[in-house]
Amino acid sequence: MTATDPALTALAQGWCALSLLHGRIEAHIERALQAEHDLSVREYSLLDVLSRQHDGEGGHLQMKQVADAVVLSQSATTRLVTRLEDRGLLARYLCPTDRRGIYTNVSEAGLQLLDEARPTNDAALREALDEAAKNPELAPLVRVVESASVPTQPLAPA
Prior knowledge:
By secondary structure, the chain is mainly α. About 65% of the residues lie in helices and about 5% in strands.
């Protein structure tokens, strides 16, 4: 394949369209969450991921798993956890069976904020997808997003 190969050009155009769709959706949700709940998209995502943990076998996520789920580096995830902990939305504690492990749980205040923010997030997502569907280049991607069946657990790293 050469740099002017039509397959590569189509692939690059598809990637650009996907990136554009993601950027528009994320920006729309960010504005809504900031305006209504003083939350960023990343903060909302972190609260959402951590709220799905449980105390049973494999119920608590390691920081790497959390980082993968919210698509951040481990250091950026740690800083985000610290910010939310400082706001009283998260709490960290030592693993009872392995003193090297640290768990992070959503506090009652964090769960309440998440419950309040979830309809805002969902409505903003719907609005962003509806707007993107009007664009002929993005409409096929919107249909894929709308028809995707997503697992309830965070995706394993590739």
